Amino acid sequence: MLSYDIIRRPIITEQSMDQVADRKYTFEVAKNANKIEIKKAVEEIFKVEVEKVTTMNYDGKPKRQGVFSGKRADWKKAVVKLKEGSKTIELFEG
Predict the structure, then answer these.
(1) Where are the domains of the chain?
(2) Contact at 8 Å (CB) between 57 and 76?
(3) I want to staple 51 with a disulfide (CB 3.0 to 4.6 A). Which of 26, 38, 78, 83 is the partner?
(4) Looking at the whole model, is its pTM more than 0.85?
(5) 3-state class (DSSP) for residue 72
């Protein structure tokens, strides 16, 4: 898998932006990616040093439109903590 296939998109919410001060960044990642692959992908894409990766799996919410019902896709979130001497990720600044 390529690094850009593993890291889908950054998650920009109030809670994730509060964690930036603690050098923690949140991303939506590929469902089948493990912590080692996520760490290598973030280090390769953003040229930073990763200390720790925490992952969470989410089930898609059930949705309905009239008589038609379905479900949103399941997804995975990763919180990446950078090492003390590492540079920051500019994507989350400002």
Answers:
(1) 3-84
(2) yes
(3) 83
(4) yes
(5) coil
Q: In the chain, count H helices and then E strands.
A: 3, 6
- Phi then psi for 44, rounded to 5 degrees? -70, -45
Q: Which helix or strand (DSSP H or E) is residue 54 part of? A: strand 50-58
Give the homologous superfamily in CATH for domain 3-84.
Answer: RRM (RNA recognition motif) domain (3.30.70.330)
Whether the CB-CB separation of 80 and 27 falls below 8 Å is answered with yes
**pLDDT tens, residue order, the chain (94 aa):** 799 999 999 999 999 999 999 999 999 999 999 999 999 999 999 999 999 999 999 999 999 999 999 999 999 999 999 999 889 988 877 6
1 and 43 Cβ atoms separated by less than 8 Å: no
